[in-house]
């Protein structure tokens, strides 16, 4: 009887241990999903991968946009964007001034449903929570170009067929991104080291110019993204100085006259040419990619939106790998990085302390991602 009781308790304990989630893992229980990479080749295309529960990727197809890339990287963040419900994918074609809309079918396959004019040299696109989209045009006179998004069909309808200028025609924009409530958006300007803030009306029309243009906390602000809160995360290239890349955070005071207030002023990571940034869904961690030093840097984020460096080199992507766009799985468990120099996608599982554990090195090499030839744009769920 005693043996049976002990055996029963042991089996119960063992079952509980096996069923308990690993404390080393971060985010919700890993689920399946997909990752998409934009070739930005002359004949532009999206390379699609299904994502397994362990974060590994399997190529599922190559899907032409029907448009033209420019063969050199965008030098912007956000050239490929998924809708919040993962039903539609939006890809820019900078060499022919169009955006392609795909329907996502069977998890990772794509069906082209629209190609629409989006201004001169579209480089980045942001989707709002209120059913609108703005494209960042990077031509000689940079600006933003707006659309209404049909949430049922994913199709884009131009708001005005006109580009709204940013604060500087030679600012060299880095990205466009909507605030969480959809009532404002920002554009980073690298050369002028400023961040433009536009208001967006309930009908989707942006102000006819930035309401404010604030000085960046660091040199050459590049990629930027809002978390679910009103905290804006901006990575700074820091060039021409070496080892000068950093991450700044800002709080958005919204309303009719949105204002950005600095929280973290360029928390340096000792890397060079920081260009891309992501933040986990719960806003506990942020990651940046530095192009020249091939490093992924990790940051912890406090509840008040301030960011603190964890490691300047959380992951090294390899000599000549040229890391560009970053993307997170929607469950916050996996981080992906498009390697322009290698023609591949690096993958990591995010650990509970924000550290990164490599998953199989990289994926997609030799499967259609151009090598050292301008691949730009990464999206995942």
UniProtKB/TrEMBL annotation:
InterPro entries: Cycloisomerase_2, Haem_d1_sf, Lactonase_7-beta_prop, WD40/YVTN_repeat-like_dom_sf
Molecular function GO labels: 6-phosphogluconolactonase activity; isomerase activity
Top-rank taxon, per record: Eukaryota
Keyword Metal-binding on entry: no
Keywords from the named record: Isomerase, Signal
Signal peptide start-end: 1-19
Alphabetical list of Gene3D superfamilies matching this protein: YVTN repeat-like/Quinoprotein amine dehydrogenase
Family to which this protein belongs: Belongs to the cycloisomerase 2 family.
Official protein name in the record: Putative isomerase YbhE
Highest classification ranks of the organism: Eukaryota, Fungi, Dikarya, Ascomycota, Pezizomycotina
